[in-house]
Amino acid sequence: MKNMKKRLSVTQENLNYSVSAYRVLYILLLLVQNRTLSLAGLNVKLLENPLINRAYNSETITKYINTLRQAGCQIPRANSQTHFQYKLLKNPFPVDFSSEELEAANRLLTLLASFSDEDLHIRYYQILQKVAWTVLDEERVQQLFGDSSMLIEGKYRESRELLTRYRELCKDAQVLELDYQITPDERVTLQVEPTRVTQDGKKLYLIGLDRQNLKRVTLRLDSIRLVRQLPFKVQHKPKMVNVVFALTGRLAKTYRLFPQETEVAREDGRRAIKARTDDYPSLLLRLLRYGHSCEVLSPAYAREEMTERVDALLSVYVSEASVGVGREDKVSTE
């Protein structure tokens, strides 16, 4: 009986040590993930962990933090100078990236900076900031970001400001009155319900609905000479459609999904893709370029429209071929 009690006490003692070690390691994990946490914020996350499920006073937390300091973690004391925050100054698990990897990351940053769509650039820059925290030294961090001054040069800034402005107008969901330059000598005034802004290469477009004829329009932003918000809310919201198409052959292997596309099936060199769009005619136009390697499966009306487009193209080729044969016959007769 004494031996059994002794074993139980030893087991309980080991369990207590393991739980304490788990708390220390979990606090380290939280600091690595968040880098800075207050006592209250730290306790909220400790309460959320089902294996801990309790809060601790500052004295106990300080003991755990001191254990991390002894292990080499750089965590200044939480005081008024640190706004009573526990801050992990350096990542305790640095990653030794090669120069080639850092240069490749920097080239991608530079490439995205040249795009008008600044969201991609900003999100990637935020990712690199997290990566930079794991880099060994400041020299390598500089290699990762390079010279960021060129990222805000005028030629990029102008198009980014234009893109940002029209995106905000789309979010407001109010009717726009536009003065639009069709040709150098012709300008029209349109009332448009804006839907979204897209980019094709270096050109930016506003997509919306012309209120006069209720037809979809695609307008180049650099051709809009004047824009005014009217005190009317957008009434015709675009209808989203799920178009499913199948790809075969080499295209099925090399095809990369576009935004709003998901793969729904794959078998024997054939892939089924579902695209969610509010402009399925434009989608069909893109799919038409894939030729016999692409088949529209649904919805039925999209499949029928694709069939009509293919038949129209075939009829053109057949008529041209017939004209060519007639000419050959005429020449041979003469």
Percent of residues in helices comes to 40-55%
Beta-strand percentage range = 15-25%
What is the tally of helical segments? 10
Could you say which structural class the secondary elements and strand pairing correspond to?
alpha+beta
| Unreliable residue stretches | 4-13
The strand line-up of the biggest sheet is: 6-5-4-3-7
Global shape: elongated
Give me the strand/helix succession.
HEHHEHHHHEEEEEEHEEHEH
Mean pLDDT: 82
Major sheet size, sense and barrel closure: 5 strands, antiparallel
Q: Please tally the β strands and state the result.
A: 11
> Rg from C-alpha positions?
31 Å
Distance between the termini: 121 Å
Can you tell me about this structure?
Helix content is 49%, strand content 25%. The chain has 334 residues and is an alpha+beta fold. The strands form 3 sheets. It has a 5-stranded antiparallel sheet. Helix 4 packs parallel to helix 6. It starts with a helix and ends with a helix. The relative contact order is 0.05. About 3% of the residues have low confidence.
Any descriptors?
25% strand, alpha+beta, 11 strands, 334 residues, four-stranded antiparallel β-sheet, five-stranded antiparallel β-sheet
Topology, pairings included?
Elements: H1 2-34, E1 36-38, H2 39-48, H3 58-70, E2 85-87, H4 99-113, H5 118-132, H6 138-145, H7 154-172, E3 174-183, E4 186-200, E5 203-210, E6 215-220, E7 224-233, E8 241-248, H8 249-254, E9 261-267, E10 270-277, H9 280-288, E11 294-298, H10 300-333
Antiparallel strand pairs: 1-2, 3-4, 3-7, 4-5, 5-6, 8-10, 8-11, 9-10
Helix pairs in contact: 1-3, 4-5, 4-6, 9-10
